Request: fold
Amino acid sequence: MMLKELLQHKLETKTATIGVVGLGYVGLPLAVEKAKAGFKVIGFDVQENKVNKVNAGENYIGDVLPTDLEGLVKKGRLKATSDYSFIKEVDAIAICVPTPLDIYKQPNMDYVRSSAEAIAENLTEGTLVVLESTTYPGTTEELIKPIIESKGFVIGEDVFLAYSPERVDPGNKDFNTKNTPKVVGGVTEGCTKVAAAMYRSVLESDVHEVSSPAVAEMEKLLENTFRNINIGLANEMAILCNKMGIDVWEVIKAASTKPYGFMPFYPGPGLGGHCIPIDPWYLTWKAREYNYHTKLIETAGEINDSMPDFVVQRAMEILNEQGKALKGAKVVVLGIAYKKDIDDYRESPVLPILERLTKFGAEWVAVDSNIPTFKLNGEMISTVQLDEKLIESADLTIIATNHSDFDYEMIKNCSKMLFDTRNSYDKPQYPNYVKL
Ligand SMILES: NC(=O)c1ccc[n+]([C@@H]2O[C@H](COP(=O)([O-])OP(=O)(O)OC[C@H]3O[C@@H](n4cnc5c(N)ncnc54)[C@H](O)[C@@H]3O)[C@@H](O)[C@H]2O)c1
Reply:
């Protein structure tokens, strides 16, 4: 059998060993799903604490069932290591390392580059490498391909290389790694076929093959830019509606009755997480190489980035109407995570809100049962317990993230003033209540 057919056979019969590089929000659920499907899985991470936790069967990612992880580790189907020499033992590798921005909003490709170099150093013939990290179009062929070729491999013959974007939506109860369709684009047609075979043997959902890694890289950026821009529009509508005294949430609800041509997006305190606020800038950066300015993306970014300021401005106005200043006011901020029911506060818009509250002299505390401590400007801060006394003692309560475990009835009844940035109530006709 040729290398390609042999690998495809191993993937289809689940006799292949799969390596997952980067055991974070994306990588750990992926490793668990592949092991549950019957593959032997080796996870790689540079953080020893994550490696140790996996090997002890201890879960640290919300989307993973602790019993799944524990069971797979016990059965010897899943293990973790920081030793890249184990790459020699795997038949297929999924790279799920971070792709953040630097302080100039330019892609930081250090993690992708260093993991690709470590993989190439230990790569053996007949192995598939798939990049899953979100990145600019061209990464797989311009950055990873030369690293692998520098070791003398011919892509499509000796080894196989593809890009397949990760679409996981942490906290989503309906769609997860297993039932979300996958897009796959290989450097050669053969590369696409083997990568697609790997996903088909694990997923319940469709695998959509495209003609190149760049198409797959670009479609992921289209997905996230689409969200970013539409949220920007919803935020702009919220700012305008506030000036005009119109309830933006009622407007969106009404528009949503149109059965075609409209999809609701909602305003909020700003964007957060590792994807929506970051990914469009990858495109903006790459577009400059082609002398093109992504105007729409930058405008949406500006609006979304201004939302924490808008929230604090509104907080000031709400207190002002009560004859109070923000300086010295007691403020309870509910929710640190960037969205509902998750424990991730990376890029959370709540952080700049807290920074501004500090700057204006408010005395604030934050509540988030999923996040016991968080870092703000280098300082570790503990969140506090939500109870009646806490809410009653505050001049203003702000719902920044609408976690399900908040007692909304109590919050509404005990708040002196309640500012809700998430439209958390069905029929919000309360005198002390203000919506974004
Ligand atoms: N989190 C999401 O919701 C989400 C959704 C879709 C796509 N993505 C994309 O997936 C990628 C990973 O995101 P994430 O949220 O899982 O990040 P994460 O920070 O949670 O996890 C990344 C892991 O990679 C490890 N790592 C870094 N360098 C490494 C190296 N050289 N070798 C081995 N391990 C290394 C880190 O220690 C970390 O554990 C990013 O490109 C992100 O944009 C994320």
Observations:
- Residues 3-213 form a domain with the Rossmann fold fold (CATH 3.40.50.720).
- Residues 88 and 99 are 25 Å apart (CA to CA).
- The mean pLDDT is 95.
- DSSP finds 14 helices and 15 strands in the chain.
